[in-house]
Amino acid sequence: MSAIFHYLGPSFAVLLFPAVGVLGVAWMRIASAALIFAPITKPWRWLRIADARTRLLLIGLGACLAVMNVSFYLALERLPMSLVAAIEFVGTIGVALYGLRTGRNLLALSLAVLGVLLLIDVTWSSDPLGLFWAFLNGALFVGYIVLGHKVSERGASGGVESLGAAMAIAFLFVMPIGIGEAIKAFDAVELLLAGIGVGLCSSVIPYICDQLAMSRLPRASFALLLALLPATATLVGVIVLAQIPSLQDVLGVLLVMAGVALHKPAAPTVVEDRIDRS
Predict the structure, then answer these.
(1) pTM of structure
(2) Cβ-contact 233, 81 below 8 angstroms
(3) What is the C-alpha to C-alpha distance for residues 187 and 171, in angstroms, rounded to an integer?
(4) Other Cβ atoms closer than 10 A to 125
(5) Residues 6+ apart with CB under 8 A from 231
(6) For residues 126 and 173, is the Cβ–Cβ distance under 8 A?
(7) How far apart, in whole angstroms, are the C-alpha atoms of residue 176 and residue 163?
(8) DSSP string for 134-167
């Protein structure tokens, strides 16, 4: 369920781009997710009781989340979902290699990088702006993992609570960026509901499913199942967006999946703090 909704939400967002605009959809996603999480997580309470250091970390986490989601959508506007998802996982495996320098993790990163290079090939190398947004999203995803880990280490909040606080702060950052385009949806109920649906599918359902899965599965099993995500991104792209991969694309996705399945995180939080951005 997490794997499906992790990319189903962004695929719906791509369909909304022509009507609302990329920045407007990003605004609606973060706004709706923040609104849904607020009564459950009470971010104002966490921010009030947190010390100054933790508040700064939460602000950094929220800023990272806001820019990450915007860059993710700007990348999806120009590149296929399978490529954007694959680039995202290179950073995740890189974090594992940094924390646990083993031949296994080096091989995992090498496979993932090779897979991404096959996906980029000549076809998408002519779109440097799209690749810039995709790599920025991947880099910020690494920052999101690191900051989320530091917040959990402080013991001020964790799990859904830290996500709710970060999402509320992210909304403050994205407010001036996307409000101009998001206003277009305010006069059309169907567009407004679709924007809320994007936030629900992208940033609420997958994370709750992750929490339920992690509470029932061994960490190694959960880490292995993350290898489903590149394949899911490709399948959702085919079904919803008609992004048909070539044989070379399929091979690239398989190499990224092999890297994700092979890598070994240095600490539980590296995997368990993986939160859907979107």
Answers:
(1) 0.84
(2) yes
(3) 21
(4) 10
(5) 253, 257
(6) no
(7) 21
(8) HHHHHHHHHHHHHHHHHHHHHTS--THHHHHHHH
